[in-house]
Amino acid sequence: MISYNRPAYTRLALTRLLETCDDTMRVWLWHNGDHAETLSVTRELASHPRVHQFHHSAENKRLREPTNWLFQNAKGAYVSKVDDDCLLPDGWAETLRNAHEAERRLGVIGCWRFLPEDFDPALAAHKIADFAGGHRVLRNLWVEGSGYVAKRAALDACGPIRPKESFTGWCIRAARKGFVNGWYYPFIWQEHMDDPRVPHSALKTDADLAGNLPLSAINRGVRTLAQWEAQLRQSARTVQAAPLNPAYYTPLGRLVRRTLRTIGLSTERRAS
To answer: What is the pLDDT of residues 113-129, one digit of tens each?
Structure first.
């Protein structure tokens, strides 16, 4: 888990993570920055017997470097990351691990963070596939960066997250190498506390959001709760509708789509 500057969320998320760990799981903690209260929470919980490593970076290294620290140093057959704003249910890791053990093709499979009303069978049904052992996965080229379990073979094949590459991009690289990614289905739900619609969210007003803007909200210019909720719903639709062909996300694929859009616009102008 990577913690930063939200002590209440960190205490809830890390406590819950430790509660869900079994004897085969080891927790690695990385704390970004010097936010005293959050650092105190992380250090307190770092004494738990399930915690294997604790690292404090006085500088906020964001996500790539801490994630690579885990990828490159953890030696287990499976590697997972859980964010400091997510609450996981009992048995989540065991279920994902069992699916991996049954199906060698799986690369990164995860828990679902969207709400039941965000699921649209008309969009997603064709992407749900059956795998060995009776396991099912809503396939996608990537999953969100929390509540997932990645197979060691995928890490060995892809290496660390590259400079300027997101975890999404890393997952797409794994898919290009033949690994199947996606969300276990029926969904294992993780409560994403940055979703204002969930019980433990601290985001109840626009002022709450302004004081605790999630990184993805900042990147999308979100300023109000209504905008943020709309963005979350749209994100759910985007991943359900996303193509399964990795070529769609190559530079050539993007160029082709831009060209087709331009041709379409030009045709419309000529016809008007």
So the answer is: 999 999 999 999 999 99
